[in-house]
Write a structure and sequence with these properties.
The chain is an alpha+beta fold. Helix content is 32%, strand content 27%. The radius of gyration is 20 Å and the shape is globular.
């Protein structure tokens, strides 16, 4: 029996409920802690996390479900639990990395993982070169901090691309310019990785006329069979990011699978519905196996 804490802002969310159910079904004790409402004692030699006026108990493991909008405070809470000796399913450092598209892509590129041709810029002094450097129109332009498909734009012509980039420059945003993988046909592949294995995968197809496959944008998901190269790419991407549990999103390009992004709090609802797999159970099982062996996390509590 383990004492497990799920860090989540909302206990009614599908993913939170499923993880709680799975942990209880496997005989563990579970607390759901609202990340933003706990506070920390950081100055003493005995670090603690307090909630409702009481210190929280020593947890064997924590499952961080940190939304993109609370990354800063959320990762600090995870770090505090790491300092207290709890095993975190994903380390705070790895979560921080995954929230920054530029940092993530640099890490993946360093490991030789397939990526779409991508340029990054803030105030490029030569917009035409930025566009032609990734192969010219059509290109996809993204805001660095976007999620759920918002801030992702397809520019059909170089002229349109220049206009969009200028507009983003006007609001002083960090942007990413990427080759458009047309052959993906408005679909991407979500690979759900747990403990270095792809445990479930789904294909998400954008609504008719929509190149973005996000379920929040009206996309639909179905079970998909991965090739061995796709499987290996997803596992390598999770490894490069240092994430034990994550969603790796791939595009099927004519030059092989390319990684678009890696999500450190992947939702369970879409993937469990599309694949009929008990992903929540696999996450709890992973924690049990990890806890039964001395773990080899490298960056614990080190920023
Ligand atoms: P977000 O973080 O907002 O989900 P993504 O980078 O995942 O942003 O882009 C949203 C969707 O747009 C993807 O799921 C994919 O379907 C589509 N997309 C993004 N980049 C490309 C690209 N380079 N080529 C083709 N489609 C893309
Ligand atoms: Mg996405």
């Amino acid at each position: 029996m383990m004492k497990i804490a799920i860090l989540s802002r909302n206990k009614k969310l599908y993913s939170t409920r499923r993880l709680e159910e799975a942990a209880i079904a496997r005989g563990h004790e579970v607390d759901i802690i609202d990340t933003l409402h706990c506070y920390m004692d950081i100055s003493s030699n005995k670090p603690s996390v307090r909630f409702h006026g009481e210190p929280l108990p020593q947890y064997d493991a924590i499952i961080p479900r940190i939304g993109a909008s609370v990354t800063f405070y959320g990762t600090a809470v995870v770090r505090q639990f790491e300092m207290m000796g709890s095993f975190s399913v994903n380390e705070s450092v790895a979560i921080s990395r995954s929230r920054d598209k530029l940092r993530s892509m640099q890490l993946l590129s360093r490991k030789g993982i397939g990526l779409p041709r991508t340029g990054f810029a803030h105030s490029p002094d030569n917009i035409k070169d930025l566009i032609s450097n990734v192969g010219g129109a059509p290109v996809v332009i993204k805001l660095l901090e976007g999620t759920q498909g918002i801030g992702v734009v397809l520019a059909d012509t170089n002229k349109a691309a220049e206009g969009i980039i200028e507009a983003f420059m006007g609001i002083k945003a960090n942007i990413l310019v990427q080759e458009y993988i047309k052959e993906a046909g408005g679909a991407d592949i979500r690979c759900f990785v747990v403990g270095g294995k792809v445990v479930a995968a789904m294909k998400r197809q954008g609504a008719p006329g929509e190149f973005r496959s996000n379920l929040h944008r009206g996309g639909s998901a179905t079970l998909v069979k991965l090739t061995s190269v796709e499987r290996a790419t997803a596992v390598a991407a999770a490894g490069a990011m240092g994430l034990n549990v994550c969603g790796v999103d791939l595009l099927r390009s004519s030059h092989g699978p390319v990684v678009m992004e890696v999500n450190s709090s992947p939702g369970l609802e879409g993937i469990e519905a599309a694949t009929s797999k008990d992903v929540a159970n696999m996450i709890i099982e992973f924690i049990e196996n990890k806890k039964s062996k001395p773990h080899s996390t490298k960056t614990r509590g080190n920023g």
